[in-house]
What does this fold into?
Amino acid sequence: MSQQPGGPGGAQEPSARVPRERAYELLAHLVASAEICVTEPHYYGSFRLLDAAAKLAAALLECGLEDPWLASLQAELDRNKVLMMSDRPAFYSYLPQASRQVAQRLLETAGDVAP
Amino acid sequence: MVRDFGPSPVEESQLWMILEAGRWASAASNNRVYRLLVLRDRRRIKLVADLSPGIFSQPAVMVVICTDLQAVAAAGLRQDAEPTVFVDVGTLMMNMMAQAHALGLGTCPATSFSRAGVGLILGLPAHARPEVILLIGHPAAARPRILPRRSPPSRLLAELVYWERYGQASPLPPG
It folds into this structure.
């Protein structure tokens, strides 16, 4: 799991190399979530995916990816995912907000793509 | 309930006290169709945690509470229709949680785990159905809470308890 060099404008993309064991941890989380989501309440599916996204971000950052935006997103994901258990309306409100943040970041890093 | 555990081990004597407390839990007809698998090996605990999206932190001890389907059959119970099978797992677990709390330890019951994956990792026989994993350990110090604190118990109690008729609130304030 590593990014290829060569981003917009020819700049070197930041990259990280995730060891197999760490990648397998993420894999196990996703596959196990797929199994238990069949019997858990439907909103747990969103929770598990946010949790997985936070774990992915943590793994990349721990493995040396220098990305302050991702670090900020990871903290925000970890803070907001638990709203599922304490404040479900706030949790639902956060979901599109997170998507917009990621979409904005995609635009910013995609180079010359008009929204 | 504790979701964030520190690295300190649980003393052997404490663990035995917790298990003994579970043995004294109320059980329908004294059947006790559950079996407990204790894990202290850090590598096995990590692998189980990897396959348990509901576990956020690795504890010093895991107790995998299984329904033994052979014991269920021997007791003449229907595993899919007998509520005491699950109720007894609850009383067992709560006894152990209370004992652990009295010893200054933290616990967390986890049901969000891959039955298939954990069963394979632990080599569970087909007649052992894992119901819940009880996490036991020392609460992590000086780390942020994983979950925000819930509402005060008094408010919850008024919402949960009816008096004399279903839906009827207490005539008196709690306390």
User: Anything to note?
Assistant: Chain B has a mean pLDDT of 90. The first strand of chain B starts at residue 34 and ends at 39. Chain B touches chain A at residues 50-54, 112-117, 146-148, 150 (CB under 8 Å).
